[in-house]
Amino acid sequence: MAGGRGGRWAPGALAEPRRLMRGGLGLIVLGHGSLVLGAIVHGSVLRHVAGASRAVTPEYAAANVVSVGSGLLSIAAGIVAILVSQNLSRAALHWTLLSVSLLNCLLSTACSVGLALAIALTVHSRGMHLVRGCDSSALPDDARAAIATNDCPFNTTRIYDTALALWFPAMLLAAAEAVLSGRCCLVALIFRGIGPCARSYSKEQV
User: What residue intervals traverse the membrane (predicted)?
Assistant: First the structure.
């Protein structure tokens, strides 16, 4: 239908049920990936660096709380997108997809930005902001350097490397979730006849 009039990026192509279903499945996969990475980050990094007082660091808030919320919402948006692809005439599902995908797009964008800031903060402070839960007097100025004693309850070098190795893919997953959610939001607007893309879609149908 859309061939010769914008190809795969034309409104008609975006609103194809098969393409919408693939986008929903993609959101579900990405959402589960974010949840798995968030669990690994919490289990292998953040539960160690919170310190004896269990203080929540900025990295914890950026990498875990927002990432997990984004993953859960991505799964919900993916399920709604699949339902819409099978029930194109249900207005209630259109509005649900619009609201959930828009919220998830905003949250996933905030998550990717937060993870980028957490990575930048950790690299700029040479990991010291990340491992501040260790009160050892032998802690070096660079978390990548080996600590001289066993006063610190965790390996600072492993914590630093593991955190960055997990935050980078988590940031990419969040960015992909934002893109797919934005496309689902656009499809919902097209189905409801809102915006210029909806008018182009109506002309294609005619």
Answer: 20-41, 61-84, 96-121, 166-191
Q: Is 18 exposed, middle or buried (0-12, 13-18, 19+ CB in 10 A)?
A: exposed
10 to 29, 175, 183, 196: CA distances (angstroms)? 25, 22, 12, 12
- List the one residue out of 176, 63, 68 whose CA is nearest residue 120: 63
d(CA 162, CA 151): 20
- For 82-115, b where at least 16 C-beta lie within 10 A, e where not — what string? bebbeeeeeeebbebbbebbbebbbbbbbbbbbb
> Is position 138 within any domain?
no
In a domain, 147, yes or no: no
Average pLDDT over residues 88-103: 89
Angle at 72 between CA 131 and CA 171, to 5 degrees: 45
For 101-109, what is the mean pLDDT?
Answer: 93
pLDDT for residue 5 = 46
Domain count, the chain: 1
* Owning domain of residue 175: 15-51+58-127+157-201
pLDDT, mean over the chain: 76
The tokens describing 58, both together, are 């900025």
Instruction: Give a yes or no: residue 82 inside a domain.
Output: yes
pLDDT attached to residue 2? 41
Percent of the chain with pLDDT over 90: 27
Q: What's the token pair of residue 97?
A: 């997809």
